[in-house]
Amino acid sequence: MAHEAANGPESVEGPLKGYHHETYVVPLPDSGVRVKLREPRRGLLWFDRRCFASEDDLLRQLHGRVTRIPEIIEVDRGLLVQRFIEGRTLGHGVLTSKALSVRHRAQLGALFAELAALRIDDFDEFGTQWLCDGAERLVVHQLLRFTEERVYREQGAPYRTLFDDLGVREGALDGLARQAETLTARPFSLLHGDLHRRNFIVDAAGDLWTIDWELAMIGDPLYDLATHLHLMRYSAQEEGRICRLWRRAVGERCPEGVAGWEADLPVLLAYKRAQSVYTDVIRAALDLRGSDGRADLRQLPRVARRIAEVLGAAQAPLGLTVLPSVREVSAAYMCWLGVRRRTVTAAAAAAA
């Protein structure tokens, strides 16, 4: 389809790196505009709960309500495409913990404010299928249940022995569920759900655009802040600035939306660290197995170090009494892959 929409194969850019879709950028004929054409990856595992059936439909409805988001273009009889935002990602060529500029910090604050203004009652007019279970006031209850039931028990079933060897067992999220009972109820609003550096584009004018809304949801506005802090890996000083920015931006639009935020933010951050364990353990296993089903041991040292780091960050949220060493993480993956014992020893030593 990408070749058909472009002026020729040589004008197609892609596939672009992404987990959920294979994405190509193509020019629309005689327009000077480039758009994204995407195809969902087959057999994809979803580690985050989706609330909207169509990202394109949601974006079309958000125009005029949220600043600097991709324009939706109807190219042919109901076929919707997103205009490609020209520029570079916010994380291009920088350290992962780099602070935002004053300008970009202000634009992030404006985004938080615009999202907080989109309250649950506004979504009746969107014409977008709302897939969230609205019976619960606190979004973290829904997310904990999704991670426990969908990610760990269903999608994670083939990796159960791997989780066990890493010390992550049934009921690891029970402690977080008890903490969630103490959270303050805040009015639901629209959340982006995935505010990390690669989902921010800096255009030629230096302005910040927000892309990739497929994980958008309706929920606690504090969850967007927790997700953003977890993914951005700011320094402590910059994290403090972003927290104050969020408090001011959301508080001006919805004072009830910041109630109890200082006490509750650590609980939501703990959930994000725990969620990363389930996501990263499975993704790492898929990467190591390879598309042909054979073990790709070249990645094992990097994978083992990464998983050991993620487990360390989530030790308290998951109640892990003992943390596996990098060598032990490596051995757990080798065992799951079914590699011979002498190979395990060599690979574990390399990872350590």
Which properties best describe this structure?
alpha+beta, 3-stranded antiparallel beta sheet, 13 helices, 10 strands, 45% helix, disordered N terminus
Give me the secondary-structure category.
alpha+beta
The shape is: globular
What is the strand tally?
10
* CA(first)-CA(last) distance: 46 Å
Helix tally equals 13
How would you sum up the major sheet?
5 strands, antiparallel
**Helicity range:** 40-55%
Task: Give the H and E element order.
Answer: HEEEHEEEHHHHEEEEHHHHHHH
Which stretches are low in confidence, meaning pLDDT under 50 for 5 or more residues running? 1-6, 127-137, 341-351
Give the mean pLDDT: 86
Description:
- With 352 residues, the protein is of the alpha+beta class.
- The chain has helices at residues 2-5, 55-62, 102-117, 139-155, 160-165, 174-180, 221-232, 236-253, 261-289, 300-313, 315-318, 326-337, 341-351; strands at 13-16, 21-27, 34-40, 72-76, 79-83, 88-89, 189-191, 200-202, 208-210, 217-219.
- A five-stranded antiparallel β-sheet has the order 1-2-3-5-4.
- A hairpin with a 5-residue loop joins strand 8 and strand 9.
- The longest helix is centred in the last third of the chain and has 29 residues, at 261-289.
- The N and C termini lie far apart (46 Å).
- Residues 1-6, 127-137 and 341-351 have low confidence and may be disordered.
